[in-house]
Amino acid sequence: MHLIKLNNREDIMTISKQDVLEAFKFRSACRYYDPAKKISKADMDYILELARLSPSSVGSEPWKFVVLQNPVIREKIKPVTWGIKHPMDEMSHLVVILAKKNARYDSDFFRTSLEKRGLTPEQMEATLARYKSFQTDDIKVLESDRALFDWCSKQTYIALANMMTGAAMIGIDSCPIEGFNYAEVNRILAEEGLFDADEYGVSCMVTFGYRAREITKKYRKPAEDVIEWIE
Ligand SMILES: Cc1cc2nc3c(=O)[nH]c(=O)nc-3n(C[C@H](O)[C@H](O)[C@H](O)COP(=O)(O)O)c2cc1C
């Protein structure tokens, strides 16, 4: 079921606010998937494209998205992944989101991510100097490996949200997953060769599929408790 109706008007696609709000209300943490319903490759490609197109601080794209469909590896992480409450084979897809480690302004990773912008050597040096000051003085992420990893991990949550919202817009369910032992999941997946543990670490996961049952009411604080306008 496609929740969003696109009106192609002079090549400008318009989506009504009501349609978007409906998608946000439809999106609920899904803990029970219908094992008989699997997401098509085209729909998963769409969801992953939303991740790839997501914004990140200074355009660093400090992430990778590992679609973990292998049943043997899924079973291996199950004992340390208490946040996935249903059997591993009920969900349609599991995406493990990795965040970059050591994404310092003076790393090859950073330089490479800047090269895609086609900067001149002078612009490159000026930009790196700006990012040095940004990472050192402003957001102070160079004080520990953890702080630097967490900064990249924060970026991945933007992609996480975009994937879930975009999925909801075409009627696909999801559940973000932080409920797991990070050290163990990192160890198992790195041992399985999914990534180089010196370069990447698991930031979070997200399950996708189609709900097997209705999801109960959404609980949210009232707007006046969480939104403040300073005029
Ligand atoms: C970053 C993050 C991690 C989460 N981890 C888990 C998890 O491991 N297992 C789970 O069942 N739900 C998890 N949730 C789902 C939340 O419990 C749920 O989003 C919240 O209660 C609000 O409900 P709603 O998503 O249905 O609106 C997580 C949510 C977020 C945003």
Automatic annotation (TrEMBL):
GO terms for cellular component: cytosol. Residues 26-210 form the Nitroreductase domain. The keyword Oxidoreductase applies. Keywords: Flavoprotein, FMN, NAD, NADP, Oxidoreductase. Its cofactor is FMN. One of its GO terms (biological process) is 2,4,6-trinitrotoluene catabolic process. The keyword ATP-binding does not apply. The lineage of its organism: Bacteria, Pseudomonadati, Pseudomonadota, Gammaproteobacteria, Pasteurellales. Belongs to the nitroreductase family. This is NfnB protein. GO terms for molecular function: oxidoreductase activity, acting on other nitrogenous compounds as donors, with NAD or NADP as acceptor. InterPro entries: NfsB-like, Nitroreductase, Nitroreductase-like, Nitroreductase/BluB. The gene is nfnB. It comes from Mannheimia succiniciproducens (strain KCTC 0769BP / MBEL55E).
